[in-house]
Amino acid sequence: MVILPIKDILRSIISVIMISAGVFKISSFPEFVFSIYQFDLLPVPFISYFAVLIIAIEVTGGFLLLFGIWRKQISIIFILLLSLFTAAMLINLFKEKTIDCGCFGPLLPNQIGWWSLVRNVILIALLYCIYEGDKKALTFYLRKQ
After folding, report:
1. What is the pLDDT of residue 2?
2. CA-based, 20 to 30 A from 138: which of 17, 37, 48, 52?
3. 28 with 94: CB under 8 angstroms?
């Protein structure tokens, strides 16, 4: 019987979340671009490029994390990405805007709200656990030699 460490289970869960979020955004790209537009934080000419960048980061990073490639670096990238999303949500919550976060495309429509912020903070905390777990494993490995 194989017992996976908790950080590997967390890594797999986060990977599936990020990959599925990216795939859902691909399947409804125009709606995702409109979601970014509604946040009113980027110049209009850059919105489509930003949407493609987000999708590429989510899907590519999700697969890299799933297969355990560059876990530490991908964890940091996802922490930064989710922090950016959280800040954008927070700004629009203070503006009292009711907009769809665009997190999972039209499959799971979700208006920004305090729950969205809590969800992102939880994901950031889990990613930090993955990052720290790899950091400690690397430190132990280097000390051992």
Report:
1. 56
2. 17
3. no
SS3 per residue for 26-74:
HHCHHHHHHHHHHHCCCCHHHHHHHHHHHHHHHHHHHHHHHCCCCHHHH
Cα–Cα dist 78/29, whole Å: 20
Mean pLDDT of 43-70: 96
pLDDT digits (tens, 9 = 90+) for 73-88: 999 999 999 999 999 9
Nearest to 80 by CA among 58, 59, 104: 58
Write the single-letter amino acid at 56. Answer: A
**Quick check: helix, strand or coil at residue 112?**
coil
**Residue 69: exposure state from Cβ atoms within 10 A (0-12, 13-18, ≥19):** exposed
What single-letter amino acid sits at 87? A
